[in-house]
Amino acid sequence: MMQTQLIHERAVGIPRLEHHPAGGGKPEQTLLESFPFTIGRNDTADLCIPSSRVSREHAVVLKRGAVYRVQDLGSTNKTFLNGKQIEEAVLHDGDLVAFADVEFNFFSGSPPPSRQTATQLIDARDGRQPADVRRSVREIRRMQETLVHGSFAHEYQPVMELAAGRLAGYVAVEHRCSEPVQRGRGLADIECRLTSRLRWLSRILAVEGAQELPCGTFLIVPLDASELGAEGLAESLQQLVPALGDGRRLFVEVPETAVSDSSYFHEFCDRLREADVAIAYGGFAAGSPRIGQLRRHPPELLRLAPALTEGLSRHRERRSSLEAIVRSAAEIGARVLASGIAHTDEAELCRKAGCQLAQGSFTGASPAAGRLGRSAGCESRHGTLIEG
């Protein structure tokens, strides 16, 4: 655990670093009471960050008069201020400083009138044009409003069991009630604390809405590839299990392209399974040889990209490829979910190829949106579950 302290009245005027856990909860605050203030993985550091991505002696915060500066100490994974790599830079109130990928906000403890640069992240000097800066400001405001107001709606797309012709589960698809964030040059690929908290909130609301879905079904919630490796991710996903309620099973869908043989991913999968969180790999668009590479961390569900089942009635070789994928998946104990199925004849071809599950408009059922009437009879978590 990182060293944190409660902020008491006596601490007003003392600078601090504030860390927001990935799984939510109260921010962890660390007072900077003496200088130089050292940061790193060493136990002797003033702020010890137990992350393998943080160097033993990573950075130091210095005070020169009334000015605070952060200096990188030649770390392996570098220090960043408001998304930019730095060697040494002045700290201002509200700045986002990251040691490797562990993020903190800096606050000087000064009264509000002295806070003059809280928006330093949006700085026209970084080469962006004024229009890009204005768009970035609007995007950040939308994200903040979404986070504060919980402006999410979720559509629950049904998944059918092909052999039995019955409902097996749902895939949660997020729709934000506010205007969607445009991923332009301003915020194109920036993964920050705000983005992480939005994804966390979205999953919570998706699971809470699914409490009204029929019992005996499962729910698939997506995980973004950029989230893998984040501190506290497994814990935040484990917390969703009791929120889903008895009689339904939770699947976390990892993009297949993000699956690796790293020790982190191995531990991540083990911790989810220990908490009764099932694992699905989504967006699978490779051939059967790739499935053999998934043997070390086999999923319970393999959700295919729509391109693999498109035009099955016209392309015999595509049907043969699908059959090979299903056979390979069976060898590692994974069930195959065909997605984007529009017609019943396509669903039948998927069934003949061995796919156990299918998702798409072929069901003729409208996706469930928002909260539904609570179904009766959800008394046992293990009574009528679809084994994924």
Question: What does this 3D model show about the protein?
Answer:
The chain is of the alpha/beta class and 388 residues long. The chain is built from 8 helices and 20 strands. It has an 8-stranded mixed barrel with strand order 12-13-14-15-16-17-18-19, surrounded by 4 helices. Strands 2-1-11-10-7-8 form a 6-stranded antiparallel sheet, with no helix packed on it. The two termini are 35 Å apart.
How is this structure best summarized?
This protein has helices at residues 130-149, 193-209, 233-238, 240-244, 263-274, 288-292, 316-331, 344-353, and strands at residues 16-19, 28-31, 37-40, 47-48, 59-64, 67-72, 79-81, 84-86, 88-91, 96-99, 102-107, 152-161, 166-176, 217-222, 248-255, 278-284, 301-304, 335-339, 357-359, 368-369.
* Biggest sheet character: 8 strands, mixed, barrel
Structural Rg: 24 Å
User: Helix/strand/pairing class, anyone?
Assistant: alpha/beta
Tally the helices. Answer: 8
Percent strand equals 25-35%
- Report the span from N to C terminus: 35 Å
Count of distinct strands: 20
Shape: elongated
Strand order of the largest sheet: 12-13-14-15-16-17-18-19
Would you identify the regions where 5 or more consecutive residues have pLDDT less than 50?
3-11, 112-129, 177-191, 371-388
Topology as a string of helices (H) and strands (E): EEEEEEEEEEEHEEHEHHEHEHEHEHEE
Q: Which whole number gives the mean pLDDT?
A: 78
Q: Which percent range fits the helix content?
A: 10-25%
Index terms:
388 residues, alpha/beta, eight-stranded mixed β-barrel, six-stranded antiparallel sheet, 8 helices, 26% strand, elongated, disordered N terminus
